[in-house]
Amino acid sequence: MHRRRAVSWLALMPLAAAAGLGGCARQQPYQQFEGATMGTRYHVRFRPPARSFDAAALQRAVDARLEALNASLSTYRTDSLITAFNDAPVGQLVPADADFEHMLALSRQVHHASAGAFDPTVGALVNLWGFGWPKPRDPLTRLPDPAAIEAARARFDAVEQPGAGQLLKREPLRLDFSAIAKGYGVDLIAEVIRSHGVEHFMAEIGGEVATRGEGPAGGPWRIGIEAPDLVVSGRILARVKLGEGALATSGNYRNFFELEGRRFSHVIDPVTGYPVARPPVSVSVIAPNVALADAWATAFMVLDEERGLAIAEQNQLAVFWVYDDNGGRRTRLSSRMQPYLDMVQP
């Protein structure tokens, strides 16, 4: 799966007291496993429902589901459905499976609700501004021409679904679900885990997290949000308490370039075609599922502060923003985030 292009990942770290790892006498100790997927790694921590539980079988089922997802949506794979769509000429019907259609549906939902701030057809713009993958060997020496920006602007409405399992594009474009697919992958892992009778777990891919039940220390899972810091990594800025929850974080403090006396963020506004002048340093979102949290975290990186807050409240989303304030740090949160969040003193 292609890495997210418009924003970078921030680490979200599960926190647990060591004394709680064994649980009560009648409970099984927590176990964990991990594997490679989507250009990063996934991690699962869970409490087996019985001593005889087959953790290896659970991991095989998780790996098989993630492999099916990559066969649909991986832009790295020449045999994936999304590669077939991207390489197809304008107007040609191409097949789409249930995962592909679900990603389109969720993407359209966030696209419309965010007034276009989220758009999986933004890839041409990201490449034009020098933030694509693989990265260009040489940095930009001049700003893109306005005509080229206009030609590359995202056009999600040019993706059509003539019938079930069918897609086509009315204009040249390339889809990239990297700003939502990792979250969706976490949702799929959670489905597999629950289908095996596990009720207490945490699943994570690249910083996107799903939780259910109790954490190893008892009570809700406590997920640490890493402080955005170029110098010191791994420091916790805040903790989010999740029982059954979905959390995603996007950041913007490592990827930018400077040209003609200006700094250009890698957060591209799909509507204007230009980098966002002063995006948040990071955004964390709690949503009904991890795919939506993932997509909304990207959208809130694009939206300005007041409009973003208004849209978060309108859509009943729990959102935590971190802004740069003249070299300092300023935070803001929507009304629904307050019950989940514990700030950490510096």
How many domains, in number, for the residues? 2
Strand count, sense and closure of the main sheet? 9 strands, antiparallel
Radius of gyration: 20 Å
By CATH's scheme, which homologous superfamily of the largest domain applies? ApbE-like domains
The level 1 CATH classification of the largest domain is: Alpha Beta
Percent of residues in β-strands: 25-35%
Q: Which class best fits the helix and strand makeup?
A: alpha+beta
| Oligomeric grouping of the chains | single chain
Number of helices: 8
* CATH fold node name of the largest domain: T-fold
Explain what this protein looks like in three dimensions.
This protein has 346 residues and is α+β, with helices and mostly antiparallel strands. The protein has two domains: 8-71 and 180-343, ApbE-like domains (T-fold); 73-169, ApbE-like superfamily (T-fold, Orthogonal Bundle). 27% of the residues lie in helices and 25% in strands. It has helices spanning 55-73, 81-87, 98-113, 123-128, 146-152, 181-195, 290-302, 305-314, and strands at 8-9, 12-15, 31-37, 40-46, 94-95, 159-160, 166-169, 201-205, 208-212, 221-226, 236-242, 245-251, 256-259, 262-265, 282-286, 318-325, 328-333, 341-343. Strands 1, 3, 4, 8, 9, 12, 15, 16 and 17 form a nine-stranded antiparallel sheet that branches. Strands 2-10-11-18 form a four-stranded antiparallel sheet, with no helix packed on it. It has a three-stranded antiparallel sheet with strand order 5-7-6, with helices on one face. A hairpin with a 2-residue loop joins β13 (256-259) and β14 (262-265). α3 (98-113) runs parallel beside α7 (290-302) and α6 (181-195) packs antiparallel against α7. The longest helix is centred in the N-terminal third of the chain and has 19 residues, at 55-73. The two termini are 36 Å apart.
